[in-house]
Amino acid sequence: MKTKSRSSSRGQSKRIEPMHDGNGLHELFEMELKDIYWAEKALTKAIPKMIKKATSEELISALEEHLSVTENQVRRVEQVFEMMKMSPKAKKCEGIDGILKEGEEIMKEAEAGMPRDAGIIAAAQKVEHYEIASYGTLCAFAKTLGMDKEAELLAETLNEEKEADAKLSEIAESSVNEEAMHTESGMTT
Ligand SMILES: [Fe+2]
Ligand SMILES: [Fe+2]
Fold first, then answer.
1. What share of the chain is helix, strand, coil (3-state, %, to 5)?
2. Ligand in nearest proximity to the CA of 66
3. Could you say which ligand is closest to the alpha carbon of residue 165?
4. Is residue 103 within 8 Å of residue 173, measured between CB atoms?
5. Are 127 and 96 in contact (CB under 8 A)?
6. Residue 70 C-alpha to ligand 1 middle, in angstroms?
7. pLDDT digit of tens for each residue in the chain (189 aa)?
8. What is the Cα–Cα distance from 19 to 153, expressed in whole angstroms?
């Protein structure tokens, strides 16, 4: 027996990409994967800029480490695409783009030294939180879709992002914030 399709939202001004029947979650998964692929690649270019502007040795080494972790995460996303028999494709991630633009502004305005380091940590943690949300979603989608191998790979990255976030908190709380507070003026303007 045929069932009538229920959801037809007509009259919308914005056209929404059609999804395959019964495959909406898979489409969403692909969209999220393309988004995070763009984000990770953008981060491999943005982290070196943060490293250049940072002062604290601890922050520099944490960023350097996360840069190589991020390069590996790009490859891991490519692996997930391959497992799905797709060629890797990136779609501009407006969220990360915005966070990185904000970060650049902070780096321009904050005084060199600990105030700027505190700003870099703030921007980097916003990035990590975005990534944690994205990979958390990707893992949940993959599990629901029965893509266990993909979910496992994505969970590895999720853990790395959580570790990076915790490390940044530790650096901020152990030294940078305190020293930034004792700098006369935090902003150059
Ligand atoms: Fe990442
Ligand atoms: Fe990250």
1. 75, 0, 25
2. 2
3. 2
4. no
5. yes
6. 5
7. 444 444 444 444 454 444 444 579 999 999 999 999 999 999 999 999 999 999 999 999 999 999 999 999 999 999 999 999 999 999 999 999 999 999 999 999 999 999 999 999 999 999 999 999 999 999 999 999 999 999 999 999 999 999 999 999 999 999 888 888 888 654 555
8. 25
Q: Is 79 exposed, middle or buried (0-12, 13-18, 19+ CB in 10 A)?
A: middle
**Identity (one letter) of the amino acid at 73?**
Q
What does the alpha-carbon distance between residue 127 and residue 39 come to, in Å, rounded to a whole number? 9
Report CA(105)–ligand 1 centroid distance (Å). Answer: 21
93 Cα–ligand 2 center, Å: 14
Q: Which residues surround ligand 1, an ion (CB under 5 A)?
A: 70, 73, 131
Ligand nearest to the CA of 134: 1
CA dihedral of 88, 133, 135, 172, whole degrees rounded to 10: 100
Give the pLDDT confidence score for residue 22 in this predicted structure: 53
Alpha helices in the chain (DSSP H): 24-53, 57-83, 94-109, 114-144, 148-171, 177-181
Rounded to the nearest whole angstrom, what is the distance from the C-alpha of residue 66 to the centroid of ligand 2? 7
127 C-alpha vs ligand 2 centroid, how far in Å? 7
